[in-house]
Amino acid sequence: MKVFPETFQRQKYYYLAYQGKAEAVPILAQINEHVAKLYGGDIREYYTDAKKMVEMNLAVHQYYALDLPGFYYDQYNIEAEALGQRINWEPERMPDIDREHFLIREHSDLERVRPPDFKKTARMPFVLEVMNRCYDLGLVARIRFCSPFSLAVNIRGIEPLLMDILTAPQFVHRLLTFLTDEVVIPWIQAQREAIGQPRATASGADASASIPIVNVPILEEFVIPYVARMNEKIGPVISQGNWGLSYLYGQPKLFRRMLELMAKMSPNLLLCADPDVAATGPGPYVEFAREQKIPLMLGIGSHLLQEGPIEKIAECCRKYVEVGEMVDRRLILYFNDISVCTPPDHVHAAIAAARHFGKYPIRKLALQSFRPAKSESFQSFRERFS
Fold it and tell me: The whole model's pTM is what?
């Protein structure tokens, strides 16, 4: 499928939001299995064949008219798999870590782990080809990696790693230093080299470094220093995906500290998403983003998008985009994950509602002013534009 002219235009809207120059709140979405199911493609092919993956993603993102194609793959697995960690494959599901057979079962196992060949091992070539194909199309494919703490979890296991933090912190630091210096940093550099962008920002995902899996002291000792280490050696590097803020909402000092740590790891964009935003409302994150003068991304949860009803989806979209003026038009709306079971009508309605209520200047329109239109089927769309 060709790239539509409006796709290039919408891509610019996303970056205008960083400058406070957006005419409307831009909309992004993480879509994985939903893409393959809607397209009718094979799920394993989606995660292994770069040509097919880019083709499917582009078609679905243009079908939904999102503002920035995501080209998402299973970001948490790439480095772990290349190190030798077993991966499970299931029908209609993204591959996942085999949590019954971790790579590092004993501390001594670390001695036999070697850095992969970043251009040849496992699915690292698949990622590099995805990036090249996107850039050849004139589209941005972000440099992604699994942040060191989550990578450690994926090859050691969360329970053993937390016990190590309590009983053998020196081992944890040795593991994290190896993963940072010998795996993640050269993997970022390999991606930069592949697209000829030696200073492109690299974006890490670190869901395991979330409350209540970890606490603030663990973040300060075992997470923050390694993000800082990457920036010292090869910056610019950011790390996001730290959920669970709402667990700290009743403890103002810890809640504030968590926001500060998140901003330290991602100084150019504060990402706060459901279920946290749904639990606390967007107000605390708006206030912090205004104070720090950084753009804000608010994420709508997968469950709401999947289950609806459309009226509730529209209401949530309105609530989130209406704060756009409060952060000087530097707001981005993000759908956390569009699941394989999410009805396309729900996605179309969410996007239409966000566009309806999210035009600047924000006018605080009544919820009843939004009426979702009937959407075209994906099959009809493909037939018209393939």
Answer: 0.96
